[in-house]
Write a structure and sequence with these properties.
The protein is α+β, with helices and mostly antiparallel strands. It contains 5 helices and 20 strands.
């Protein structure tokens, strides 16, 4: 077969049976160069994804810098379940604020807002730090925007968290509703979306609106159209900082089912602070005992509101899903 020559760069002539190899090699080098430029131009962040009862978070070890390595806008992109990693929020382990504390927790929700605290999130954070520091059983003192929280990672992988004491004063929830029961808002009736709901308000460092009845009757949480009513409750004018809303079905004094609409995240499979607030509100309304299992769509949490010191202990799982490095745009 005759060999033909094809002109290439610099006027060189290469036999046709080797010209395609030369061109392909040149294209490959150009592609490698462009990829290298993209990698150098785009910053990245190492992460590990954890979940607690299906409430999933992107965890970042940020203890070398007091400022989060991810911005709120970038957090929105990372939490996108189609175009990002997917998650209910991005959580950072930061240097501690207070002497004697181990580290600080901050979180950006999937909408970019920043809550004061997250119960499932702090369990995941404690497990994350214990895993990367190779301390399978550890107790930590963690600074949060809601104050000092103390999680303990157990040998079985579960995390028990001292969530502190509940707060009831309307101005600290915050809400514009007046107290109606010894400085608390308990079983307040309000019309929303054409129905009358009974609301008890509790802060666990973040606001919670607990609902046990509709139009004077208890309900099945599976029957509620949470997709259509959740946002309405979150944005009621009586909550200037918006609110989390929990709808609760009492099965017995020691067992309830709960669904939650989280402020800044919408419907989630679990909410740790919401589970704590559920038991507190149930006790205040005379419906529940202080030790109670709260069944969420993602699974159960054990809650104990101790009478001895008024503190709430929440116990539940936290599990690693995967880790990697994400490009920040």
């Amino acid at each position: 077969m005759a060999a033909f020559s094809i002109p290439v760069a610099y006027g060189l002539r290469v036999p046709a049976d080797r010209a395609h190899l030369k061109l392909r090699s040149t294209r490959d080098a150009q592609l490698r160069g462009s990829r290298s430029l993209v990698c150098r131009a785009a910053a990245g962040v190492k992460f590990t994804k954890y979940q607690g009862l299906g409430n999933d978070f992107i965890l970042v070890d940020n203890r070398d810098n007091p400022e989060p390595k991810v911005t709120p806008d970038q957090a929105v992109k990372l939490c996108d379940r189609n175009f990002g990693i997917g998650g209910d929020g991005v959580i950072f382990a930061l240097p501690a604020d207070e002497a004697g504390s181990d580290y600080k927790m901050r979180i950006f929700n999937s909408d970019g807002s920043e809550p004061e605290m997250c119960g499932n999130g702090i369990r995941c954070l404690a497990r994350f730090v214990a895993d990367i520091d190779n301390k399978p059983a550890s107790t930590y003192k963690v600074d949060t925007l809601a104050g000092l929280i103390q999680p303990s990672v157990r040998e079985d992988g579960y995390v028990a968290v001292d969530m502190g004491e509940p707060v009831f004063a309307p101005e600290k929830i915050p809400t514009t509703l007046p107290a109606n029961n010894n400085g608390k808002v308990v079983a307040h009736q309000m019309e929303v979306e054409g129905a009358t709901w009974t609301m008890t308000l509790v802060s666990m460092g973040n606001p919670h609106n607990l609902i046990f009845s509709k139009d004077g009757a208890e309900f099945k949480v599976a029957d509620l159209p949470l997709e259509s009513i959740g946002s309405t409750f979150e944005n009621l004018a009586v909550f200037p900082a918006r609110t989390n809303t929990e709808f609760v079905e009492v099965v017995s004094r020691g067992y309830v089912k709960m669904r939650v609409w989280e402020r800044g995240a919408g419907i989630t499979l679990a909410c740790g602070t919401g589970a704590c607030a559920t038991v507190v509100a149930g006790v205040l309304e005379g419906r529940l005992d202080r030790e109670c299992v709260v069944e969420l769509p993602g699974g159960p949490l054990e809650i104990n509101w101790r009478e001895s010191d008024n503190k709430i202990i929440m116990t539940g799982p936290a599990e690693m899903v995967f880790s990697g490095e994400a490009v920040l745009n």
